Amino acid sequence: MVQIAQPASTPASAPAPGEATRAVMLPERLVLRRGGVLEQVEIAYETWGELSAAADNAVLVFTGLSPGPHAASSPADPSAGWWEYMIGPGKPIDSERHFIICVNSLGSCFGSTGPSSVNPATGKPYRLDFPELTIEDIAAATHAALRELGIDRLHTAVGASLGGMSALAYAMMFPAAVQRLVVVSAAVHATTFAIADRALQREIIRSDPDWRGGDYPLDRPPLNGLRLARKLGLMSYRSAVEWQHRFGRERMSVETPDEPFGMEFQIESYLEANARKFMRVFDANSYLYLSRAMDWFDAAVHGESLSAAMGRIEAREALVIGVRSDFLFPVAQQRELAELLSGAGCEVELAELDSVQGHDAFLVDKERFAPCMRRFFDAADAR
Amino acid sequence: MVQIAQPASTPASAPAPGEATRAVMLPERLVLRRGGVLEQVEIAYETWGELSAAADNAVLVFTGLSPGPHAASSPADPSAGWWEYMIGPGKPIDSERHFIICVNSLGSCFGSTGPSSVNPATGKPYRLDFPELTIEDIAAATHAALRELGIDRLHTAVGASLGGMSALAYAMMFPAAVQRLVVVSAAVHATTFAIADRALQREIIRSDPDWRGGDYPLDRPPLNGLRLARKLGLMSYRSAVEWQHRFGRERMSVETPDEPFGMEFQIESYLEANARKFMRVFDANSYLYLSRAMDWFDAAVHGESLSAAMGRIEAREALVIGVRSDFLFPVAQQRELAELLSGAGCEVELAELDSVQGHDAFLVDKERFAPCMRRFFDAADAR
Questions:
Q1: Measured at the alpha carbon of residue B286, what is the angle toward residues B366 and B18, in degrees to the nearest 5?
Q2: Helix or strand run (H / E) with residue B166
Q3: Measured between alpha carbons, how far is residue A335 from residues A296, A306, A329, A345 in Å?
């Protein structure tokens, strides 16, 4: 029943999945929320720890827009993952107690079926023939993948940013499958500002002539558009205070800019380095699909009202974490979420953290995030 | 001595100056701060009210990055100006008492000499042969223009945003020429975040193939780059709270986007409409020069230290206005500025306003800005 394989549907020129990445083929075709159909769906994932005999210790970790399933190192892939401090033996999400599984979102490009995957009907990459993607589809594909892996019920569903939206969708759509919920720097829907920010990122990618209306060869992607969009993204992921302290008005060590109006300040070279790294590993069309899915997400559509929708959730314990310097998902949104979960009968801990790193603080502020997460899991397991 | 004429050096395809715009040719060539030289400099301006016989009622208004000198309507041009509620008969800056002059910044494109002006040495537009431009050059050219117009000393120098930086530079460079200072939503230098934001805008313009390394024909400018850069600018000019209230998550009335990943939310069409209007009237190279000048500006270079530099200022009364929702020039910067001016012996009123419109509040929040400005000018004239 369980199919595990190295992901096969990814063309050679797309990003290579990590050494520890495995994939599961869903047993049935997937009908997406906005009407599209995927005849074959593969979901890539990595795991840490062992599933208990009762299969009651599984912790699902959804990712944000850009990371793959390599959330932490493991014997199969000792390279550091994107949430290295959080996941592993003795870590806050402890692989000695839990079976932790991190999935690559449907529509992404690290082994799961997405716009750069081969469409079995044509033998060519989907590109823009990939159907319209929603957060709910990410949740549904993940749910089907977990069932294939023999996991019917989660100890906890965890997600940050887009991953937090995915975790909320999962808990609303499959209420019996989620005992606990951890939502970090996310919300029941995006703010107007966040929508404007992401819409502009998408428009920047689409404006790159190399995007070719989505039909770029996978080995000649719209690198410049993706690079510029990533810089704009980064501006909303971190915080002005952090940059002021780290970079101030320091100039780059190279004295003369090599092009008119070229880079001059250290902050520019920081953004450039990050964006160059990103543009080489992320598929532009995946970015467009996932980015738009975040704008579309609105928990309220799952019920007569927002509180009715949230009332579907059966998880009885939740941790909601927000960061005061986050202006992409401002902390008022996590307060709102905590109240809604509480109104739905969930015992909620709301943690408002003073990290200076803005929206991305969960990736880097181990000092504040690790104790917060550890406390939640320790308390859950002590009951 | 006074030369007044319709601006002559602007090519036909560049933005046309307004009906009330006049221009003064500087009597001498201008040596710019970073070493460049402009052999001929014209400065465009508009005026309201009459200069008193003692020439002691002149109020200079510097503009932000994008506006021209048409700050308010007048008999010669009855169309509304960009600060219509602020300037005119009986308005807070009262043309019945004051001779108000608004200048088009050196390097801009509304009649003053800038990158789209004809280089007398070649008979062609300067484009990137225009010398490196600083805020101090804008102040120096303006000072020379005012002297040509017979104004040696200002009742008050006023400026918002880039204009506030220009006013500060003016007061440091020509201390005896400024009796009072009004600085709105500006600072002694830009934050790291603001630099990153503007550097990305410039890179977006430069990435438009139609920019052609700055050598675009003036009738075929890099419209798409300018349009996208303007959208990014707008995201830093307004505030998330304002947009949430005005647009929320409302969709556009057109149901089906006409292109893949096209516009869908009302906030997108608002940005698009503004950006399209802007791209048709503003020269892309002017944008690059003025934008970079803001990043370069640092009041501290005018003395051994920042406070020594500010100590040069001889204005004895100042009004500093900041807006709590401004994240481009956050209110902490206006607090810092007020303290520095106070330390320099100036009597300072610091107004921290609760406008929701962010950095651009001075353009639209008449309710809060008008009384604040009126009080300052009434008090000054009552002494």
A1: 55
A2: helix B162-173
A3: 21, 15, 11, 16
Q: What confidence tens digit (pLDDT) does each residue in A76-122 have?
A: 999 999 999 999 999 999 999 999 999 999 999 999 999 999 999 99
Identity (one letter) of the amino acid at A175?
P
Which pLDDT tens digit goes with each residue over B224-249? 999 999 999 999 999 999 999 999 99
ipTM surpasses cut 0.85: yes
- Per the CB < 8 A criterion, the answer to whether A92 and A83 are in contact is no
Q: Given an 8 Å threshold on Cβ–Cβ distance, is B261 in contact with A206?
A: yes
Confirm if B58 and B155 have CB atoms less than 8 A apart. yes
The verdict on a CB contact (< 8 Å) between B261 and A197 is no
What residues of B are in contact with residue A236 (Cβ under 8 Å)? none
Please tell me the pTM assigned to this model: 0.95
Q: Read off the amino acid at residue B216.
A: Y
| Contact state of A249 with B190 under an 8 Å Cβ cutoff | yes
Nearest Cα to Cα of residue B293 among B285, B302, B305, B282: B285
Q: A382: how many CB neighbours lie within 10 A of its CB?
A: 6
What is the spatial distance between Cα A21 and Cα A79, in angstroms, rounded to a whole number? 12
> Helical H runs in chain A?
135-148, 162-173, 192-207, 223-237, 240-247, 266-281, 284-296, 306-311, 331-343, 361-364, 366-382
Question: Nearest-5° angle of CA B14, CA B100, CA B369?
Answer: 95
DSSP bridge partners of B45? B22, B103
pLDDT digit string, tens, across residues B162-176: 999 999 999 999 999
Chain B residues in contact with A299 by the CB 8 A cut-off are none
- Please list, in sequence order, all residues whose beta carbon lies within 8 angstroms of the beta carbon of residue B177, skipping any fewer than 6 positions away: B143, B146, B152, B153, B154, B170
Residues 6+ apart with CB under 8 A from B176: B153, B314
* Residue B343 near residue B310 (C-beta atoms within 8 A): yes
Count Cβ atoms below 10 Å from residue A79 Cβ, excluding itself: 12
